[in-house]
Write a structure and sequence with these properties.
With 522 residues, this protein is an alpha+beta fold. 54% of the residues lie in helices and 9% in strands.
Length: 522
């Protein structure tokens, strides 16, 4: 039969304890806590003439110096060199400014496709460069939060962290009852610094519009708004633990058996400490060990794509920060997920918009896709969608970008970005997190299944939604699943390839991307 809580959530089959949602003491009043946190965000980032406190001087000094040196030395060089130099100086400034800016850099580092490649590559170096807090500091936080000494709470507690990040660090420990656990401990002053830094970021962001070539559609004020919403909820580990419970429940409802979420402890969860079940597995890029264990890497990719998209479009909730450090592959082939501080929870209106986006993309309906993007907040409500289709050439035969010269590519990209910005396009939180995850899955395909046929997989995913969730899709957006047909020509157009091509592997796609990048750099 297995553990009783498997009927509720996608957990491990060898539980250190059973999750009983109605008996979790730390969940009391969490809906109110989440609501209060969200209501605080507009106040934290509201326009001010000058932010209060002295933090602004430190920020202006570090960022201003970096941007100033770039402007004086590299701004007028070729586009790639200019962006690379500016990205380097922004990364160094972020590291000097501490946890809040390092966290922002880490989010940017997993935003390939949203942010310029040079900025993503530079901020990737931020991921593992956060010094750990001393054990004495960790002890103080744990004991203040749990109301007992570490020795009273744990039989063993590793003094050296397993990992240290910008908001918190994690330690291995053992409970007196024998269970091995992971303990996540928040840095003691991070909440205070985050609130001060958000105020400074919101004040500074408008000055950067149009002045630095790394903003694209995720313009600085919009990026600060998205960042404020995500990091504010990360500061209360009770919310993260609830996210774990809710995502695990979503997987169980969808009968997604390819994922495992660690169980949060029934009592040892507070605002700054989170004790959870310890799981084991292979690092996501440890291809040799995964292959040696006889695990089907293609199935990992399929499960990841379907599970992530179903969570978003059917249940309106998904892990919002997928990257190699937040998951691993277990010996039975399932994927274990961690770090639920950034979790997207969508209102019904936005969930249905994502559903419209998938169905419209699958059937080659550009107006339908723009309607969905507008509903998600990527375009203003009064946008003339017919004009957007015409201006972007979405109603004509697409041009293969690999057939364009470097000058033609640059000109076309600049034209498209200028048009979108003119229409007021932006990157709302849910869409940004969704795209970030798609980018991660794109990289996962490169690592685990570079020979997989992308056209076949996309068609299979679309048909899975139509067949498995046809009734709900019909109720939600009036889409007739019985007459559904995947528009392969439209999918090929989206990739910019000739309609006569029958298969497209990830390796093929990468070759095309590299050719386009080379032309853009020249």
């Amino acid at each position: 039969m297995g553990p009783s809580d498997l009927a509720f959530g996608s957990f491990s089959e060898d539980p250190p304890w059973i999750v009983e949602p109605d008996n979790l003491r730390w969940t009391k009043g969490l809906d109110t806590v989440r609501s209060v946190v969200r209501r605080q965000v507009p106040e934290l980032i509201k326009p001010r003439r000058v932010p209060s406190g002295t933090r602004v001087f430190k920020v202006v000094k570090e960022l201003g110096t970096g941007i100033g040196i770039w402007a004086a030395t590299a701004r007028k060089k070729d586009q790639h060199t200019s962006r690379a130099d500016l990205s380097l100086r922004l990364r160094k400034a972020a590291e000097e400014l501490g946890p809040t800016y390092i966290k922002l850099g880490q989010i940017i580092s997993s935003g390939q496709g949203i942010f310029p490649d040079e900025l993503v590559a530079e901020f990737t170096k931020c991921r593992d460069q956060v010094p750990a807090e001393s054990f004495e500091t960790v002890r103080t936080v744990v004991e203040e939060e749990l109301g007992q000494t570490i020795e009273e709470a744990f039989a063993t507690f590793d003094r050296n962290p397993l990992a240290a990040a910008s908001i918190a660090q994690v330690h291995l420990a053992t409970l007196h009852s024998g269970e091995e656990v992971v303990v996540k401990v928040q840095r003691p002053t991070v909440a205070e610094f985050v609130h001060k830094d958000l105020s400074v970021m919101a004040w500074l962001a408008p000055f950067l519009i149009g002045r630095i070539p790394v903003a694209a559609l995720a313009n600085p004020p919009a990026l600060v708004e998205v960042f404020a919403h995500t990091i504010s909820e990360e500061l209360d580990f009770r919310l993260e633990a609830q996210n774990m419970i809710d995502v695990a429940h979503s997987f169980a409802q969808l009968e997604q058996k390819g994922f495992v979420v660690p169980r949060p402890h029934p009592t040892l969860v507070t605002r700054r400490v989170l004790v959870m079940e310890r799981l084991r597995g292979f690092q996501f890029d440890d291809i040799a060990s995964i292959a040696e264990a006889g695990i089907d890497t293609h199935e990992i990719i399929r499960t990841g794509m379907v599970g992530f998209m179903e969570g978003a479009m059917i249940n309106g909730i998904f892990h919002g920060d997928l990257h190699g450090g937040n998951l691993f592959v277990m010996e039975d082939g399932r994927t274990a997920l961690f770090d639920f501080g950034i979790t997207a929870r969508m209102q019904e209106f936005h969930r249905k918009a994502f559903l419209k986006l998938l169905m419209a993309a699958s059937t080659g309906n550009p107006i339908g896709q723009l309607v969905a993007l507008r509903d998600l907040g990527a375009l203003p409500p009064d946008t003339d969608l017919e004009a957007v289709v015409s201006d972007l050439g979405l109603d004509g035969v697409p041009v293969d970008p690999t057939t364009m010269s470097a000058e033609e590519l640059v000109t076309e990209l600049q034209r498209v970005v200028k048009l979108l910005l003119g229409y007021g396009a932006r990157m709302p939180k849910e869409l940004m997190l969704f795209v970030k995850n798609l980018v991660f899955l794109d990289g996962a395909i490169a690592t685990l299944a570079p020979d997989i046929d992308l056209f076949a997989e996309i068609a299979n995913i679309a048909m899975h939604f139509a067949k498995t969730h046809g009734n709900q899709i019909a109720d939600d957006i009036g889409f007739d699943g019985d007459s559904f047909e995947v528009d392969m020509d439209g999918i090929k157009d989206a990739f910019g390839v000739d309609r006569g091509i029958d298969t497209l592997t990830y390796n093929d796609l990468q070759d095309r991307r590299e050719l386009i990048k080379k032309r853009l750099r020249h």
